[in-house]
Design goal:
The protein has 2 domains: 81 residues, Alpha-Beta Plaits (2-Layer Sandwich), CATH 3.30.70; 33 residues, no CATH class. By secondary structure, the chain is an alpha+beta fold. The chain has a 4-stranded antiparallel sheet with strand order 1-2-4-3. The protein contains 4 helices and 4 strands, in the order E-E-H-E-E-H-H-H.
């Protein structure tokens, strides 16, 4: 299913060095789109690095055929690491990496290097 993403609001936050975008995704007759697919499509639309793009929130109301979301595109990896919380950074990774990070965290082993790849 091709994603029909409409940018409803876009503004620049110079204090944090990021672009903040609000979107609407129409998906009549289909399920809520995958977070990683949306991230890939937004990165392509904005011409930004996929690693610096964070899907903060995707919300579908019960019975609605659209999803609203909030996306942050950072200028640098340092700003992203400083401002985003652990669970948001993990949520924006693929399933294999998420599983690996959670396993390492449970065993109290280092896992921060996995965010850099």
């Amino acid at each position: 299913m091709p994603l029909n993403i409409e940018i409803t609001e876009e503004e620049r936050n110079p204090l944090i060095d990021r672009k903040e975008i609000k979107i609407r995704i129409d998906h009549f007759g289909a399920s809520t789109p995958n977070r990683l697919e949306v991230k890939k499509k937004i990165s392509a639309m904005q011409g930004s690095d996929e690693k610096l793009t964070i899907i903060k929130k995707l919300e579908t109301r019960f019975g609605a055929s659209y999803t609203q979301g909030k996306i942050y595109i950072y200028d640098s990896a340092e700003e992203l690491q400083f401002f985003e919380s652990f669970h948001i950074k993990v949520r924006n990774l693929d399933k294999e990496k998420r599983t690996e990070i959670y396993q390492l965290k449970r065993r109290n082993e280092p896992y921060k290097h996995l965010f850099e790849n």
